[in-house]
Structures are given as C-alpha cells and as structure tokens.
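Researcher: Next sequence.
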Amino acid sequence: MIKGKDIILRAPEMHDVDLLYRWENDQSLWHLSNTLSPFSHFTLEQYVLQATNDIYTQRQVRFMIEKDKKTVGCIDLFDFDPNNQRAGIGIIIDKEYRNQHLASSALDCLLDYCFNTLNLHQLFCSISSENKDSLHLFQNKKFEICGTKRDWIRLNDKWIDEYQLQLLKKNYCNELNTNRKTEKK
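Model: Next structure:
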C-alpha cells in the first residue's frame, strides 16, 4: 500500500471486480484504452486473481485509488521498461468522484513511487487533444508535450489528435526542490 496525504494506492481485490467491470465496459471510455470489445466479469476476476503486482514480471501494475475506504479510481503503470527506466501512466477516476483533486493526489503518490522506489528515468502518457482535464492535470505535474499524433483517434466519425507527454526524473526533482524552497518561506 502506498499512502498519500488523503488517498492510498493499493492492489486490486476481488471486491473491486464489479467496479472494474463497470469502468472497462463503459464504451464512452474505450477510445482512451483502445478497447474494442467488452470484458467479461470472469475475465476481470481472473485478472485480479492472477495479478502478482510484480512489475518486473508483468511489465505493468494497477493500483486502486482509495479515499476514506471507498475505491474512487485506478492508476496504471504499463509498458514498463527496466532497461531504459521508463513506464507509461494511465488513470481513471469514477465520475462520482471527479473534480475533487483525487487524480492529482494519486499522481503525486505514483510519481514518488516511480522516481524514488522504481528509480525510473522518465514517465510518459498519451492524451487526446480534447481531454482538457487530463492535459491540465499532467501539465501541472510538469509533464511536457513532446509530440503530436495527427488524426490519431477516431471518435464518433471525427478524427482527434493525440499528444504524447513525458516527465523526466530531473524535471520532477527540480520541481520538488522548488516547491520545498517555496514552502520554507
């Protein structure tokens, strides 16, 4: 379990399967994860049962975001590459809990874990140009747009660009040091 100021990140449990089932089968979210077909309840149960949470073996890990003993979302590390010390990040907050700074708190916890426990060199994510909330969240954490995939996502017969963002450990550490100096004043 990874503890933050107001949230914790923990491994998925069997009692999370119904929630995961709802999120994974919400067609309005499929374009975010390139999902093309629904997940069965059985498949998600097997995922939770078989997940070792060993990022070095599975090259990915999912953390459930919990606040006040309620599961409010999940945050994933994927495409983990220990040789090049990088991983991708994905996050979802349940509609009921959005706009409460929970994604920001979860991302703070995950950044600390990635840079100080896993000793990663960089993190990356892909965000559609229309997802202003996610762009704002990641850019506030000093992720920088490093590329644009033009007409990358087809959504409702409309083509949308996708931005590639990355955060280097040195930029994360510089931001932390700047914040600490500001807090001391």
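Model: The first strand starts at residue 2 and ends at 3. Helices lie at 17-24, 30-33, 41-50, 55-58, 102-117, 132-140, 169-184.
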